[in-house]
Specification:
With 365 residues, the protein is of the alpha/beta class. The chain folds into 2 domains: 183 residues, 3-Layer(aba) Sandwich (Rossmann fold), CATH 3.40.50.2000; 162 residues, Glycogen Phosphorylase B (Rossmann fold, 3-Layer(aba) Sandwich). It is 38% helix and 18% strand. It has a 7-stranded parallel beta sheet, with helices on both faces. The protein has a 6-stranded parallel beta sheet with strand order 10-9-8-11-12-13, with helices on both faces. β11, α10 and β12 form a beta-alpha-beta unit. The termini are close together.
Length: 365
Amino acid sequence: MKIAYLSSSTLPSTQANSVHVMKMCSALASEGHNVTLVGQQGHTKKNSSIWSNYGVNSNFGIKFVKRFAGKLGSVLYGAGVAWYLTSLKPTLLYGRCPHSLFFSCGLGISFIYEAHSLPGNQFRYGLERLLFLNPNFKRLIVISNALKQAYLEKFSVLKGKDIVVAHDGADVSNVPGGCRTRNNKSAKLKVGYVGSLYPGKGMEVIARLARTAPEYEYHVVGANGLFDKWRQELEERVIFHGQVQAALVPELMQSFDILLLPPQNKVETAQGGDIARFMSPLKMFEYMSASRPIVASDLPVIREVLVHEHSALLVDPRDILGWCAALRRISDDPLLAEKMSKNAYETLLRSYSWRVRAKLVIPLL
């Protein structure tokens, strides 16, 4: 099948949405489809390709469409994407960009829309409603059961059969099958966090942990959000790696002894919206692929994937003493750490790899 994957992602960039679309396009192409990813052009280093930036095979094409600044930027971008599709002639549209899908509806091509949050304003709501009413609309893909329920409550035109839940995913290649054995038992355990530093993502927990439990060595990988603030405040207690190329992140995660996933009850995005109720954190699945013990916030969307004491330790995001206790428990019980690491990795293999996700949406196409 000839698939045009319509995104508004900047490629390459440090945003999680760019990782998602690159990984999904590679997975769809690996399933035998002819895939072209549409997005906005970022900046690549000399002698570097976009595909290598993300550690994916160059088994799909990429087309850049210019996005103009201003209030009409998204509208003009969507129109530009639709114009390009007249020459590409795909047999199916798979879109995360509702503006592009809206302007492409006139081409008479079947389409699937993927959403990672509810529309944040009435214009976006109206735009999505028009998509759902279009005769070429086939399915809505969402990233959590909570988001599916929210869409059913928000849009009366949607039925349960119209929505498929496909959580985020991660690669499984070059990943060990079990938890790493510590060579130097006297050294501090390395506790790592990988992700953005926007309010609610978890730096609040890491800051308190670094002060309350200094017996561990804390690492933070990522620079989006309040990087300068946190580095200035915690530079003597936390090692900040800054932004790391996506292709290099898996190896770095495997260098840590424990991985933290501490989102709060309210999580801000770069645009300022709250995604805590509906998120399916990309880093959760990348943590699972690293075969390292995970300590995560005990939130409903996290419990859709991780099981307490089976694949992770789940802790109330506000209970800093609970987080300290979880770190001590993993430190004192290597058998539990190994069991959870193995179970998380096997769960990823079985249900949450990018290839599994591609297979989940492909029958719907």
